Amino acid sequence: MQEDNKLEQGHVTKQNAIMIGLICLMVGFTIGVVYSSYKLKPTVNTANTAIVPENNQTIDYRQKEIELKNELSQNPENASAWVQLGHVYFDTDQYVNAIEAYKKSLSIEPGNANVLTDIGVMYRYNKQPQDAIKSFDEAISADPKHEWARFHKGVVLMKDLDEKDKALTVWEALLSINPTFMSSKDQSLEELITHYKEHK
Q1: Residues 98 and 137 in one domain
Q2: Same domain for 125 and 63?
């Protein structure tokens, strides 16, 4: 009888040990999952914060805007600061503010094809395709080999104005400047042109 009790106690102890082991295993697994989820959780993008892929740092766009406005209050003729402020508005989808900041820069240093192209993109996002085309044309006039102005002009013609033939003509002219131009990281401009020609 005593031996039976010992066996029973031993059995219970063994059961307890197994249960404790399983609980520990489950707790450890849960902690691991929570920790992994925390480590892998992406940074939430807000109106004033975004990931910079190059160095995985964040930009406080609100702070950047304040710094640039302070600089411009003291040096309103700083064309570069106006461009940077335009970029802040560009990146935070403040289209009208971006256009105004870029135009301020151009009033100081006219003929900057890059800035004219950025204005065109902002006009497009603000649903002003004709103004976008005008800005891209100004960029091309300032720099006839400006590739992105030509590409974005084709996008507006194709997507917003439904002028496919004109868009293809613009893109083909761009190909004559740069035959290896990439419309995205996965698609060449030549492939894009072929796609639209096949789906006319």
Answers
A1: yes
A2: yes
**In 3-state terms, what secondary structure has residue 111?**
coil
Range of the domain at 139: 49-198
Sign of CA dihedral 41, 52, 93, 125: negative
For 126-138, write each residue's pLDDT tens digit.
999 999 999 999 9
Query: What is the average pLDDT value for the chain, to the nearest integer?
Result: 81
φ, ψ at 162 (rounded to 5°): 55, 40
Long-range residue pairs from 105-109, CB within 8 A, at least 24 positions apart, any chain = 105/79, 105/80, 108/77, 108/78, 108/79, 108/82, 109/79
Each residue of 28-65: pLDDT tens digit? 444 343 333 333 222 222 233 332 445 556 789 999 99
CA 180 to chain CA mean position, Å: 23
